Amino acid sequence: MTLLVVEGLTKRFGGVAAARDVSFTLEAGEMLAIIGPNGAGKSTTFNMVGGQLKPDSGSISLDGASIAGLPARTIGKAGVGRTFQVAQTFVSMTVAENVQMALLSHHGRSRGLFRDASALYRDEALSLLARVGMRNDADRSVSELAYGDVKRVELAVALASRPKLLLMDEPTAGMAPRERSGLMALTADVARTNRIGVLYTEHDMEAVFAHADRVLVLVRGEIIAAGSPEEIRANPRVKQVYLGEAGTEAAMRARRKAVA
Amino acid sequence: MDPSFLVLQSLSGLASAASLFVIASGLTIVFGVTRIVNFAHGSFYMLGAYIAVTLVPRLLDLSYSPATFFLGVLLSALLVGLIGVAVEVLLLRRLYRVPELFQLLATFGVVLIVEDLVLKVWGPVDLAGPRAPSLRHGVEILGQRFPAYELVLIAVGPLVLGLLWLLMHRTRFGVLIRAATQDREMVGALGVNQARLFTLTLFLGASLAGLGGALQIPRIPANAHMDLSVITDAFVVTVIGGMGSVPGAFVAALIIGQLQAFGILIFPKVTLVLVFALMAVVLVVKPWGLFGRPEAASGRVMPPEGIPALRRFRPAETALAGLAVLALLAVPLVGDAYKVKVATEILIFALAAFSLQFLVGVGGLVSFGHAAYFGLGAYAAGLLVTGPFKAPMELALVAAPLAAAAGAALFGFFIVRLSGIYLAMLTLAFGQIVYAICFQWVEVTGGDNGVVGVWPSSWAAGRTTYFYLVAALCLTAIVLLRRVIYAPFGYSLRAARDSATRAEAIGLDVRTHRWLAFTLAGAAAGLAGGLYAFMKGSIDPTLTGIPLSIDFLVMVLVGGIQTVMGPLVGAAFFHALKDAVMPLTEFWRLLLGLAIIATVLAFPRGLAGAAEALRSRRAAAPKPVEASA
Amino acid sequence: MSTRDETFRPLSRRTVLGGLAAAPLGLAASRAAAQGSGPIRIGELNSYGRMAAFAVPYRNAMQLAQDAVNKAGGIKALGGRPIEIVFRDDGSTPGDATRVAEELLTRENVAFLCGTFLSNVGLAVADFANQRKALFLATEPLTDALTMGSGNRYTFRVRPNTYMQTRMLVDAVKDSGVKRWAIVAPNYEYGQSAAANFKRLMAAAVPGFEVVGEQFPALGKVDAGATVGALSQMKADGLFNVLFGADLTAFVREGNTRGLFEKRKVASLLTGEPEYMIPLGDETPEGWVTTGYPWETIDTNGHKEFVAAYRARFNDTPRLGSLLGTVVVGMIRDMLEKAGSTETEAMISALEGLTSQTIAGPVTMRALDHQSTLGAWVGETALAGRQGTMKNVRYADGANYMFPEAEVKAARKV
């Protein structure tokens, strides 16, 4: 069964349509990138899938169950993990505690009154941290990590609920170039190994063309093109409105690197 | 009803609205730019009135004319503005880097100091100011007389609004004020001299408060109680309008003025609760006031103000805590009866402060009305033992936390829908509603006289026995509550505080958790309240009032909002301090205020926070930066 | 946690007030023992900070009277021991006040307590005194409950209560022919109970008496314009006012400008007390029937000498608080002389039925309800120059305005 089916999603703010009739699908284990200029409606689309925004109309189904308009925490419980454009972590906690917190919530034990929280699900948290390469930093405070590491922790947190779908809003924003490719490679690896579908937005064309299986192009709230990276790169309309020459070159470079 | 009467009543409402707006506009501007909840704004208002009743008659002796009168009023306002500058430069400026709540604490210290200084300088007798020349008379409107001076006031409101609009849109200072109100970080990023901006803002805000006070002298005598009588109303106007919004304050003042003018015709006794009920309704319907905006902080990574990281007691601390408990338990053996009484009070306040810290430090939910739950517990206990039920103390002490929890659950249901300062203000509104009910429902609660005869069962009546009962219950409650902080529920609250967005994304129901936290903290405060009632032998509305809520907040902050055990230290310190200075002089508020400010300046992270900082500096800990226990 | 220890270290106040033996256990016994020699200590707690306008003149007069008593040889029945009043701020809340009362009893070893201003504070201290079996002479609180429903055998009250003062006013206006009354009172117990007393007493005394409307502005926050407007609209012939302090000044100014008091009979509680009249200044309305203390017109019972001594020492005119302070110390002296002891029971039986000769006239502490018969002066407000005063004044002896015995018995029999 198709993992995520989005149909006719529309959202208006005042008179302006931030997303108009957006439809796409996503398979398990697939990486789908949404690109588009600033204000194209990427984050709006994203937040509707993640539950941070309610769509005006349209349907979203995850594994056949409708999740449109549900609150974020319900969608989270239904199997959608997510990371944010500006990393959202629990800054007063250690790296391991951040992941443990997600595990506590996933197992429905967030209201426990007496057990010592720092001992619960620690092993599981440590193995998730090992997966993202943060095992050695488990007992550091998340507030003192470099930003790239924070993003890794966020990925571990998102994975804690064993999601079927990962939503990543500009996962590499604010990161150094070397960290970016590392994080994207890690994400792609996790997705393919665990059969998790990944929907992500990106400004960084390298991250898009190197790792996406398919790409959607959003302009002014509408999808103007969809297809494999090659198709998108070749699409004249996309070139015209969005990528521009520089973007195309970056895309070429990225693909060459990935192939090599 | 006579239509001419309706017109006049509405004019009266407009006059009060104008007065209220002038004051509230200053408060809202200061909040918008500095994010300080400035309790001292009422003090500025009072100073405006006192300076004007001193200055204006002297000027009128020189030249008796309306122009002189208003010149005197303006001069008074400017003088108060300079006092505002002094407060900013000497005090607030030193506190911009510490948690915002500490500035609130400092302004509260200013309130106490100004109150006693005014008494010292101007004496205790109310000072009626001169009437404005040529405006003493009444103007005939639709066959009825209306004071000419109030017509002037009605004009002053829109005039001040207009001038502020010009200031905000035509001057660089004004543009910066607006920018800072919308996004404080941006102003810092633009390379604006933030210190100067804040100083000027305080000048403007204090001047407006002073103007409000000075304009009142023909109507209200300058008196030592006018600071607190105005500050709550000014808060209400600011919140209803949307904090930071000057037009919002204008509209809110208009609404309140009219509501007051006509409300008293229908419910003559509504005066106590009207404005707070209105604020509660507005906040429930519009969580950011009429013209306010959600705080822009949500996308930003800012360290939370509460407990940064949990850690266990170190061995030395375990020993220290054990010793402290032992020392406490030994008080009846070594101390006299009075010491036992003070120790009992400290235990009770420690539990109350700890329950507040559970909300503020762990949950990030600042409550300005925590005394409501303390009071609900006290009233439940007191009314059960004295009322028709004549229940025993044991039952009453079970009922106290339950009643407070029920109240906290009811109010909390609405409160947790809000965030930040609006949440705090809604707790204040509900607190005042509880106060008003206790105050006004005379048949049941005994009104402001309260109910006496709330004494413990005979087995616990001895002071020492009661002390040990209080110690057992309070220490158990504190230990349990501390346990909860370290348990998944406490972690969930901290998670929601650190990042509500992340918490929701991992499937946490933030509101429900906060609601449960409110209920739990309310129950603990209610237990403290019940124990307090039996120690004092009486209940009365001051147990639910704002001053006690502020005391609790002071205990938390003085002890250290970033530490788990700090509030206990704060409760002991604050109560002991009050107990020590009260017998020294009737100007004990002055000493208390000075002590609070000195504490804030010397230990900007509270006493426990300071001890912690000292320890970590000495240890120069290599890696794990844990801030507190 | 180390700061906790500081809690229990008494600060320098003991040295301030003279050295004291550390209080051991067994309080009642120790209190008596400590009273065996040296001055007789009396614990006086009041709102010297928040209610300074009343409480400071009160304290002044007490100090003056205390010095007079000691100069005259102290308490003769106790071997000429002097009296020493220990003053404490009561914090203006019941919670603080009961703690201060405890401190006075256990730390300062006072023989008994007196004072308090606010009614809720007075009631809480009274109940505390009852619990501790200590004598409490409530000097100022007005609430009827203190000597009625919440009365107890350890508590006595000096000032004429709300009922008595209202009854004095009712007496003065009941024959004026005015039947349609409006009421304005502060929204708390004192205001509500004055309004209720007024209605009850007027209904009994004046056939056809009618209340056409009431206003209860919040204490200290009167919205004078709206309140005066609402009262004007009621078209009453008489106005019963209970507002005082800053509320009264604001109300009077607004009412004067709008003509609220023209052609209306106004009966006003406490307005003639200097505490409230001085701030009214040249706006003092004329012809209001009021209770008060026109010190400049009283020349009986050595009152003139008191005024002279007070002015000489404090360079200020006396207030009602000053009168009360003098009367209270006189009653305390007489009580101690009669009791010949500082044992609580002895003092109680001495105080019950005790008659003191005061500068206001003879004052008896009625045994039935522990309410003294101290009265008040009733008259009409008037302007003398730029300052308010009272004319057509007579002293209303409290003895004639006490609660009827049957009502007391019904109320105190809990």
Automatic annotation (TrEMBL), chain A:
Domain ABC transporter stretches: 4-245
One GO location term (cellular component): plasma membrane
CDD domains cross-referenced by the UniProt entry: ABC_Mj1267_LivG_branched
UniProt GO MF annotations: ATP binding; ATP hydrolysis activity; L-isoleucine transmembrane transporter activity; L-phenylalanine transmembrane transporter activity; L-valine transmembrane transporter activity
InterPro entries reported for this sequence: AAA+_ATPase, ABC_AA/LPS_Transport, ABC_transporter-like_ATP-bd, BCA_ABC_TP_C, P-loop_NTPase
Pfam families: ABC_tran, BCA_ABC_TP_C
Keyword Iron-sulfur among UniProt keywords: no
One record GO biological process: D-alanine transmembrane transport
Keywords of this entry: ATP-binding, Nucleotide-binding, Transport
Keyword rRNA processing: no
Protein name: ABC transporter
UniProtKB/TrEMBL annotation, chain B:
Keyword field contains Transmembrane helix: yes
Transmembrane segments: 6-31, 43-60, 66-92, 104-123, 148-168, 197-215, 235-257, 264-285, 318-334, 346-365, 396-415, 421-444, 465-485, 515-534, 546-575, 587-608
Keyword Transmembrane helix carried by entry: yes
Chief place where the protein resides: membrane
Membrane-related topology note: Multi-pass membrane protein
InterPro entries linked: ABC_transp_permease (IPR001851), BCAA_transport_permease (IPR052157), LivM-like (IPR043428)
Location within or outside the cell: Cell membrane
Coiled coil: none
GO process annotations (BP): amino acid transport
Single Gene Ontology MF annotation: branched-chain amino acid transmembrane transporter activity
Cellular component GO terms held in the UniProt record: plasma membrane
Keyword annotations from UniProtKB, A to Z: Amino-acid transport, Cell membrane, Membrane, Transmembrane, Transmembrane helix, Transport
Top-rank lineage group of the source organism: Bacteria
Family in the record: Belongs to the binding-protein-dependent transport system permease family. LivHM subfamily.
Name by which UniProt lists this protein: ABC transporter permease
Organism this protein belongs to: Methylobacterium aquaticum
Automatic annotation (TrEMBL), chain C:
CDD domains on file: PBP1_As_SBP-like
Top-rank taxon: Bacteria
Biological process annotations from GO: amino acid transport
Domain Leucine-binding protein stretches: 49-380
Keywords tagged on the record: Amino-acid transport, Signal, Transport
InterPro entries: BCAA_transport, Leu-bd, Peripla_BP_I, TAT_signal
Xref: Pfam families: Peripla_BP_6
Keyword Signal: yes
SUPFAM superfamilies xref list: Periplasmic binding protein-like I
Family from the record: Belongs to the leucine-binding protein family.
Annotated protein name in UniProt: Twin-arginine translocation pathway signal protein
Provenance organism: Methylobacterium aquaticum
